[in-house]
Design a protein that fits this description.
Elements: H1 2-9, H2 44-54, H3 59-66, H4 72-80, H5 82-106, H6 113-125
Length: 143
Protein backbone atom coordinates (compact mmCIF):
# COMPACT_ATOMS: atom_id res chain seq x y z
CA UNK A 1 0.00 0.00 0.00
CA UNK A 2 2.83 2.35 0.66
CA UNK A 3 3.87 2.18 -2.99
CA UNK A 4 0.35 3.01 -4.12
CA UNK A 5 0.30 6.10 -1.92
CA UNK A 6 3.68 7.21 -3.28
CA UNK A 7 2.37 7.01 -6.81
CA UNK A 8 -0.62 9.14 -5.94
CA UNK A 9 1.57 11.67 -4.16
CA UNK A 10 3.63 12.46 -7.27
CA UNK A 11 1.98 14.86 -9.68
CA UNK A 12 0.82 13.34 -12.96
CA UNK A 13 3.18 13.70 -15.90
CA UNK A 14 2.04 16.39 -18.25
CA UNK A 15 2.15 16.06 -21.98
CA UNK A 16 4.28 18.50 -23.90
CA UNK A 17 1.24 20.17 -25.42
CA UNK A 18 -0.16 20.85 -21.96
CA UNK A 19 2.90 22.61 -20.57
CA UNK A 20 3.32 26.32 -20.92
CA UNK A 21 6.78 27.68 -21.45
CA UNK A 22 8.30 30.99 -22.32
CA UNK A 23 10.52 29.49 -25.00
CA UNK A 24 9.68 29.94 -28.63
CA UNK A 25 9.03 26.69 -30.47
CA UNK A 26 11.75 25.33 -32.69
CA UNK A 27 11.05 25.57 -36.36
CA UNK A 28 12.87 23.09 -38.52
CA UNK A 29 14.33 24.56 -41.63
CA UNK A 30 14.22 22.31 -44.67
CA UNK A 31 17.57 20.97 -45.77
CA UNK A 32 17.36 22.35 -49.25
CA UNK A 33 20.18 23.87 -51.16
CA UNK A 34 19.52 26.35 -53.94
CA UNK A 35 18.48 24.65 -57.14
CA UNK A 36 21.13 24.90 -59.86
CA UNK A 37 19.67 23.17 -62.92
CA UNK A 38 22.94 23.21 -64.88
CA UNK A 39 24.52 20.80 -62.39
CA UNK A 40 23.50 17.13 -62.24
CA UNK A 41 21.09 16.20 -59.47
CA UNK A 42 22.54 14.86 -56.23
CA UNK A 43 20.75 11.52 -56.50
CA UNK A 44 21.80 9.50 -59.57
CA UNK A 45 18.36 7.92 -59.91
CA UNK A 46 16.74 11.37 -60.10
CA UNK A 47 19.32 12.49 -62.69
CA UNK A 48 18.62 9.43 -64.84
CA UNK A 49 14.89 10.07 -64.52
CA UNK A 50 15.29 13.75 -65.51
CA UNK A 51 17.42 12.91 -68.54
CA UNK A 52 14.97 10.27 -69.73
CA UNK A 53 12.00 12.63 -69.38
CA UNK A 54 13.92 15.35 -71.24
CA UNK A 55 14.57 12.87 -74.06
CA UNK A 56 10.83 12.30 -74.39
CA UNK A 57 10.47 8.97 -72.59
CA UNK A 58 7.05 8.67 -70.89
CA UNK A 59 7.16 9.21 -67.13
CA UNK A 60 6.09 5.65 -66.12
CA UNK A 61 8.84 4.09 -68.24
CA UNK A 62 11.40 6.64 -67.04
CA UNK A 63 10.50 5.81 -63.43
CA UNK A 64 10.98 2.10 -63.97
CA UNK A 65 14.26 2.63 -65.81
CA UNK A 66 15.59 4.90 -63.05
CA UNK A 67 14.69 2.28 -60.43
CA UNK A 68 11.61 3.86 -58.86
CA UNK A 69 8.53 1.89 -57.93
CA UNK A 70 5.13 3.15 -56.98
CA UNK A 71 1.89 4.38 -58.41
CA UNK A 72 0.84 7.40 -60.36
CA UNK A 73 0.89 9.71 -57.37
CA UNK A 74 4.54 9.02 -56.54
CA UNK A 75 5.49 9.37 -60.22
CA UNK A 76 3.70 12.69 -60.40
CA UNK A 77 5.36 13.91 -57.21
CA UNK A 78 8.76 12.93 -58.56
CA UNK A 79 8.16 14.63 -61.91
CA UNK A 80 6.81 17.80 -60.27
CA UNK A 81 9.49 18.09 -57.58
CA UNK A 82 11.26 21.45 -57.98
CA UNK A 83 14.76 20.09 -58.56
CA UNK A 84 13.70 17.50 -61.14
CA UNK A 85 11.41 19.94 -62.93
CA UNK A 86 14.14 22.59 -63.12
CA UNK A 87 16.65 20.04 -64.42
CA UNK A 88 14.25 18.76 -67.10
CA UNK A 89 13.48 22.32 -68.24
CA UNK A 90 17.19 23.14 -68.41
CA UNK A 91 17.99 19.96 -70.38
CA UNK A 92 15.19 20.73 -72.84
CA UNK A 93 16.42 24.31 -73.28
CA UNK A 94 19.95 23.05 -73.95
CA UNK A 95 18.72 20.55 -76.52
CA UNK A 96 16.66 23.21 -78.32
CA UNK A 97 19.61 25.59 -78.32
CA UNK A 98 21.96 22.92 -79.71
CA UNK A 99 19.48 21.96 -82.44
CA UNK A 100 19.01 25.60 -83.40
CA UNK A 101 22.77 26.19 -83.63
CA UNK A 102 23.22 23.05 -85.76
CA UNK A 103 20.44 24.13 -88.09
CA UNK A 104 21.90 27.62 -88.50
CA UNK A 105 25.36 26.21 -89.18
CA UNK A 106 23.90 24.16 -92.01
CA UNK A 107 22.30 27.25 -93.56
CA UNK A 108 24.52 29.00 -95.99
CA UNK A 109 23.85 32.51 -97.15
CA UNK A 110 22.77 32.28 -100.77
CA UNK A 111 22.82 35.49 -102.74
CA UNK A 112 21.00 34.21 -105.80
CA UNK A 113 17.19 34.34 -105.40
CA UNK A 114 16.66 31.33 -107.68
CA UNK A 115 18.95 29.14 -105.59
CA UNK A 116 17.26 30.32 -102.37
CA UNK A 117 13.88 29.37 -103.84
CA UNK A 118 15.14 25.96 -104.88
CA UNK A 119 16.62 25.39 -101.40
CA UNK A 120 13.30 26.34 -99.74
CA UNK A 121 11.33 24.05 -102.06
CA UNK A 122 13.72 21.22 -101.24
CA UNK A 123 13.13 21.80 -97.53
CA UNK A 124 9.37 21.70 -98.01
CA UNK A 125 9.51 18.60 -100.21
CA UNK A 126 11.79 16.60 -97.95
CA UNK A 127 10.61 17.76 -94.51
CA UNK A 128 9.27 15.38 -91.92
CA UNK A 129 5.62 16.27 -91.14
CA UNK A 130 6.02 14.78 -87.63
CA UNK A 131 8.17 17.81 -86.77
CA UNK A 132 5.12 20.03 -87.25
CA UNK A 133 2.09 17.91 -86.33
CA UNK A 134 1.10 14.87 -84.36
CA UNK A 135 -1.86 12.56 -84.70
CA UNK A 136 -3.26 9.43 -83.13
CA UNK A 137 -4.21 6.30 -85.01
CA UNK A 138 -7.96 6.25 -84.63
CA UNK A 139 -10.05 4.16 -87.03
CA UNK A 140 -12.57 6.09 -89.05
CA UNK A 141 -15.78 4.23 -89.79
CA UNK A 142 -18.14 5.05 -92.64
CA UNK A 143 -21.82 4.89 -91.97
Amino acid sequence: MAKAKERRATPPARNSFMTVSNRTPRVRKPKSSPIIPSKPLSKPSREIFAQLVAQGVPVPIACETAGYSGGGVSRSQLRRSPDVDARVQWLLAQRIEADTKARHRADEKIEDARLRLIRELERIAFCDPRDVMQWDRVPVFRR
